[in-house]
Amino acid sequence: MNLKEKESRLFFHTYKRLPLEVERGEGCYLYTKDGKKYLDMFSGLAVNALGYAHPAIIKAVDEQVRKYTHLSNFFIQEPQIQLAERLLTLSGFDKIFFSNSGTEAIEGSIKLIRKWGKQNGKKIIFGMSNGFSGRTMGALSLMDKEKYREGYEPFLPNFDSIDFNNVDDLTSKVDGQTAAVFLEFIQGEGGIVGVTEEFVSALKSLREKFGFLIVADEIQSGIGRTGKLFGFQHFDIVPDIITVAKPIGGGLPVGAIIGSKKVADVWTYGVHGTTFGGNPVACAAGVATLDTVMTDSFLKNVVANAEYFKAKVVEMEAKIPVIKEIRVYGYMIGIELTIESSSIVDAILQKGVLVNSTAGNVIRILPPLIAGKQEFDRLLTVLSEVLAVTS
Questions:
Q1: Which helix (H) or strand (E) covers residue 29, if one does?
Q2: Per-residue pLDDT reduced to its tens digit, 225-276
Q3: Cβ-based neighbour number of residue 262 at 10 Å
Q4: What gap in Å lies between CA 319 and CA 322, rounded to an integer?
Q5: pLDDT computed for residue 2 by the predictor
């Protein structure tokens, strides 16, 4: 029985696995058991910010695992303190809570908002159309995608959805009962779509009028992926809560809720917790990740390479009519096609490059932040070859 057959027999059928048996990873590349090499421009769904086997991550993990791999959160743990200090200093926010994942950060934020809302006479929480918040019941309650929600009803009460970038819908729904508005300022699963300045301006004005909380979901767009610490920093707004995960553990599972002064004193001892959240090994890897990524030279390189890639794809767009639109926010890249994208992604895989299909017709590209012009040139060559056949 091969691995694919074993997987089918052993697991709930929730993942449609790629037909690769990965043996190891190095830099931006994955190596399979059959001796093939793949350029990974998807980076574990934006998790592996420093690619595979990065020396700084290996060193941090090795040093920490020799001390202790886990302590109860009844203990003060130096790796947690170090990661918390960095995230709060870089963000300018006030308090942090470590979770195991992004969806747990979303779930914890909902609890934080409800407690804050009860104290302030507010109860309605809004998500955005085409947003993606995770798989828990709270996360699903924020979303409108039936693909993920169907069969899990009923959802949590006092949740609703706003049409992303629709100012009229925003202003018609938000009022004095609104406790919070969640949004990805750059939607990932939704097709790499950024919020408009008009929508941001309206959201700010409504917060000033009604006093609700704004939650920035930076789980995919955070920690340098867009050339800044967070995606919302490309817009003229500061949220009240930030949720992060994916890259902050350097490939290990950790997420966080980052809160402003507005919510800093809402939680008290014992009202929220986690067994594994803030694992010391993951936090040590997170410190190494932040120290590597959050330097001017590293981020400037991300921006420069993204601009290089965009210019090349724009040249390609003029020759390949199936390219409808190109959306680039640093290393968060969407190429919208006039045709369905999953078969295109499969064809790209056959040529040794990993990208992703999302929103039906968008090629989603989430390279490791260490990817350079050599990796982008390889991707451009393959994209050109595959898309030219469809035109």
A1: strand 29-32
A2: 999 999 999 999 999 999 999 999 999 999 999 999 999 999 999 999 999 9
A3: 15
A4: 9
A5: 84
- Tell me if 3-54+296-390 shares its fold with 56-293: no
CA distances from 225 to 68, 153, 268, 306, 333 (A): 30, 34, 33, 10, 10
30-61 in b/e form (b: 16+ CB < 10 A) is bbeeeeeebbbbbbbebbbbbbbebeebeebb
CATH numeric code, 56-293:
3.40.640.10
- Between CA 264 and CA 59 the distance in angstroms is 34
Task: Using DSSP bridges, classify how beta strands 241-244 and 178-183 pair: parallel, antiparallel or unpaired.
Answer: unpaired
Contact 255, 243 (CB under 8 A): yes
Q: Report domain extents, the chain.
A: 3-54+296-390, 56-293
| Contact between residue 172 and residue 162 where contact means Cβ atoms under 8 Å apart | no
Longest distance between any two alpha carbons in the chain, whole Å: 63
Sheet harboring 22-26: ordered strands across?
22-26, 29-32, 37-40, 353-354
Q: Does domain 3-54+296-390 have CATH number 3.90.1150.10?
A: yes
Give all strands of the β-sheet with 159-162 in edge-to-edge order.
95-99, 255-259, 241-244, 213-217, 178-183, 124-128, 159-162
Mean pLDDT of the chain: 97
